[in-house]
Specification:
By secondary structure, this protein is of the alpha/beta class. The protein is built from ten helices and 13 strands. Strands 5-6-7-3-8-9 form a six-stranded mixed beta sheet, with helices on both faces. Strands 11-12-10-13 form a four-stranded antiparallel beta sheet, covered by helices on one side. A three-stranded antiparallel beta sheet has the order 2-1-4, covered by helices on one side. Mean pLDDT is 88; it is low at 305-325.
Length: 325
């Protein structure tokens, strides 16, 4: 990361009626970095993106993209960025090629139309009218429009919504290639796997503020890992070795079901298994699970919700990877 391409300080956005959607957000993105903004619906992701794209003036704070104010110095910023909105809103009667050609005519230094369509997987759909495209194909067209000007900074707002698994991974590869070739990417997504796969760093927004920020590994490391199991009849938590000696920071029980929380997963799991071996105890439904971005997200998005213990509102099922709370 050689220099700061996006610089946001105490950014605020207020809508009519006094609703403050963005409440003092600050972060920076370096050249060639991929930064992901996560958050529940209404957390302020799109509102923040629109301020960075120069689509609205902030109510307070400061934002710079490529050294310029994207709203007041739009002419200096717009030719150097690409924007993929959640919906493109392109004319339904135009063909895919006509739509891209029209956009290319308004863009200096545009990529060749055919090459752009091939890049996003629409080469064989060039003659199809926009209204006949599937939802995933429309997202590919949105991406083509964002890429056609060879942007230095690329804003992607939910880029893989509507894509199947194969299309999503193809898009990931394209985004990685752009990043690896020096394009700075700011991404919003509801797919936690997408953020884990792509992001160099990320921020989790909650109610208009940044609740966590940093490298994915660091955000995940702040969350506890879990060891869960069932004790046989006649055994209780008190029969286990002292939990503190296993590196366990907390536990919950529900009948014979026990769940341990720890930031030292190997130590806790090893100590538990050695005890079970020596005591000749079989631990039922043993599950050893490392900390995850999902846990970090849920603890922020649903404060007060127990995501790992007895009485969990998740009903014992894994949380959805796409979180649209």
């Amino acid at each position: 990361m050689t220099d700061q391409v996006i610089d946001v300080t105490d950014l605020r956005r207020v809508y009519g009626g006094g609703f403050e959607a963005v409440r003092g957000v600050s972060f920076g993105v370096g050249r060639g970095e991929l930064f992901a903004l996560l958050g529940t619906n209404g957390a302020g992701k799109t509102s923040t993106m629109e301020l960075l794209e120069g689509l609205a003036a902030p109510a307070g704070g400061r934002v710079r993209v490529l050294g310029h104010d994207p709203y007041t110095e739009r002419s200096a910023v717009r030719p150097r960025i690409g924007v993929m909105l959640q919906e493109g809103g392109f004319p339904a009667e135009l063909t895919v090629a006509e739509t891209v050609r029209m956009w290319a005519g308004c863009t200096s230094g545009a990529r060749p139309v055919a090459k752009t369509l091939e890049t996003v997987g629409l080469g064989k759909r060039a003659g199809v009218r926009v209204k006949q495209l599937s939802g995933g194909e429309k997202r590919r067209l949105d991406l083509a429009m964002a890429l056609i000007g060879r942007p230095e900074v690329l804003f992607l707002d939910e880029p893989t919504t509507g894509l199947d698994a194969e299309g999503r991974r193809e898009t990931w590869e394209l985004v990685r290639d752009l990043r690896d070739n020096g394009t700075t990417v700011l991404l919003t997504t509801h797919y936690l796997e997408e953020a884990e796969e792509l992001a160099d760093r990320l921020a989790i927004l909650h109610e208009g503020r940044i609740a966590a920020e940093g490298r994915v590994a660091d955000v995940v490391a702040a969350q506890p890992s879990h060891v869960s199991f069932e004790l046989p009849e006649g055994y209780f938590v008190g029969d286990l070795p002292p939990l503190a000696e296993l590196g366990v920071s907390g536990h919950e029980t529900s009948g014979r079901r026990v769940k341990l929380r720890t930031h030292e997963l190997q130590r806790a799991a090893t100590g538990l298994l050695l005890w079970a071996r020596d005591a000749q105890v079989e631990l039922g439904a043993l599950d050893v699970r490392a900390a995850s971005l999902e846990e970090a997200f849920l603890r922020i998005a649903r404060p007060g919700t127990n995501t790992d213990g007895a009485g969990s509102t998740r009903g014992g099922r894994p949380a959805e990877k796409e979180l649209t709370v």
